[in-house]
Amino acid sequence: MNKIEKSWYKPVGLINILLLPLSALFWLISGGRRVLFRLGIKSSYKASVPVMIVGNIGIGGNGKTPFVLWLVPYLQSLGLKVAVISRGYGAKPPHTPYQVSNDSTAQLAGDEPLLIFKRLGCDVVIGADRQASIEYLIENNEPDIIVSDDGLQHYQLDRDIEVCIVDNERRFGNGLLLPAGPLRELPKRLKTVDLTVFNGSIKEDGYSLNTTGIFSVKTGLPVSDFTPKGIAVSAIGNPARFEKSLKANGVNIIQSRHFADHHMFTEQDFDTVSKNNLFMTEKDAVKCQSFAKDNWYFLRVDAVPSEGLITKLHNLLDKKGIITHGV
């Protein structure tokens, strides 16, 4: 995390003040764009199946992917065939739309889409053109509902349900728009979404992130016989949360190595780690499996929503006509 990003989660200082003119420009451009869509001057694409967007108003480390990993099976439990679309940040697919498969790598599909596919086995399609991705899925996979992993600010895409994930610990940082702060939209945007979900809260509108074991990066299988001491490696938006979870699971972190969010790891990134045990997130592990050593591990976490959140989501799906009453 660079100096500017660190300043977002501290009291407003000189760096933030100097960047305020750029934040004002960002507000004018993004706000003007929203007005054009609201007035119908710019048109949105309406899919023939319901679309649920799971996004946020800030950038990085809000816990969106764990929620999607819980949401898809929940929707499936209601009898819905679910597909996922994603921009595929950092991916370099041979074409788009690109459907993630067993042959996909993180380089082709992106880390989060590959993780979602590996965990859930559902249809996952990536591409910057979300309309093309949706039309591909409708033609080839016939889903009942499409979950968009991120895209809350992608107003070219009409949506039936908007879910905004908020980090209950960091919240909105200094409350400023990019680049003076971490926000893409101001907190008042939450008044217009269908559901605001707080990551790290066990209250009515939240979910906790529970660790469900240490796994081998190389095999993807759970492990129990390992030395709980080594180097924590991460390329995520909030490495502090990950390292806190490692320590809570008894891992003695002797060194931390942080990379930019979505960094596409290569074997050379680990040339200096000697023979130490490595601990990483599941999102990072999918990028390292092909060259992982036997003593590389990842910490698996799962979202556990409150009963109140599940009830709210169920009622919302019912209200929108996505499920029939009583399902």
Automatic annotation (TrEMBL):
Bilayer-crossing regions: 12-29
Record's keyword terms, sorted: ATP-binding, Kinase, Lipid A biosynthesis, Lipid biosynthesis, Lipid metabolism, Membrane, Nucleotide-binding, Transferase, Transmembrane, Transmembrane helix
Binding sites annotated in the UniProt record for ATP: 58-65
Keyword Nucleotide-binding among UniProt keywords: yes
Gene Ontology molecular function: lipid-A 4'-kinase activity
Domain of life according to the entry: Bacteria
Classification via InterPro entries: LpxK (IPR003758), P-loop_NTPase (IPR027417)
Pathway: Glycolipid biosynthesis; lipid IV(A) biosynthesis; lipid IV(A) from (3R)-3-hydroxytetradecanoyl-[acyl-carrier-protein] and UDP-N-acetyl-alpha-D-glucosamine: step 6/6
Catalysed transformations (reactions): a lipid A disaccharide + ATP = a lipid IVA + ADP + H(+)
Enzyme Commission identifier(s): 2.7.1.130
Family: Belongs to the LpxK family.
Task performed by this protein: Transfers the gamma-phosphate of ATP to the 4'-position of a tetraacyldisaccharide 1-phosphate intermediate (termed DS-1-P) to form tetraacyldisaccharide 1,4'-bis-phosphate (lipid IVA).
Protein name: Tetraacyldisaccharide 4'-kinase
